[in-house]
């Protein structure tokens, strides 16, 4: 078994006996065996049903927003927010990884639909940031260190509890800025996002009875409902954990085990974001092409393997992480993170 010893020195270090560190291949073989014995239905049916449920929630919410009854309006706003989160957080995430099915074309369509058309964020830019940077370089300073989520100019309460309401409105602006050096792809995104926004505002006007401006504002407010939790989970699961320099990055198994955290399962968050973003984030980082259903299925094997080899397996409650970030906001979100050093003892 790997023996990991943490020492508090002038620079923080993980001292690891390299000869005892298990190979990633050992864990991969266990996970591959589980995946090999799973049917297509077990791998993908739930996630595709989840996608359809998100569309149903969205449509039902828009129908409720056509009412003049305050209670129905609240229900409608909640359903639109929930449907928007399922489609633009869970589905775009899984489809970007090719985890919604075995068809590459199908995954690309879902990425475009949930990203460019509904979420107003280019799937192209999301792929570059998430697949090419964040995953291979998780918690490596200057590469996949989640620094894009830091806004040190904002006080903690504003960042955590007020700014997220603007998240849906600024998303297309940020997305477009990431494509300025790719004019053709920028044009394609602007057409897709423009068509998507026009479609939803037209529904708000012609079906729900709003003015164009009122429909747009109401739509953005509803879409922001789960933006608070979306921003929170993206910082809770990496920031505050060991960050590594490129020169001292650890072996991949240790990098993911030490730099990723699972939030304990929560029915509402599981529904809005999926297991790979909530309770199976460690498993997702180790095996990013697995669907949500499969991440949940392999979780016991991954957890037992890491703990049996004395490797980190980080877990915490959403509320606990929120308290930590409220108390230590400046340390975690304003100051530069301390760099950990991976020291391998032969």
Automatic annotation (TrEMBL):
Keywords: Membrane, Transmembrane, Transmembrane helix
Record Pfam families: FA_desaturase (PF00487)
Listed GO biological process terms: lipid metabolic process
GO cellular component: membrane
Record flagged with keyword Transmembrane helix: yes
Signal peptide residue numbers: none
Superkingdom: Eukaryota
Tagged with keyword Calcium: no
Domain Fatty acid desaturase: 75-315
Gene Ontology molecular functions: oxidoreductase activity, acting on paired donors, with oxidation of a pair of donors resulting in the reduction of molecular oxygen to two molecules of water
InterPro entries the record matches: FA_desaturase_dom (IPR005804), Fatty_acid_desaturase (IPR012171)
Transmembrane segments: 49-66, 73-96, 158-179, 186-207, 213-233
This protein's name: FA_desaturase domain-containing protein
Species name: Macrostomum lignano
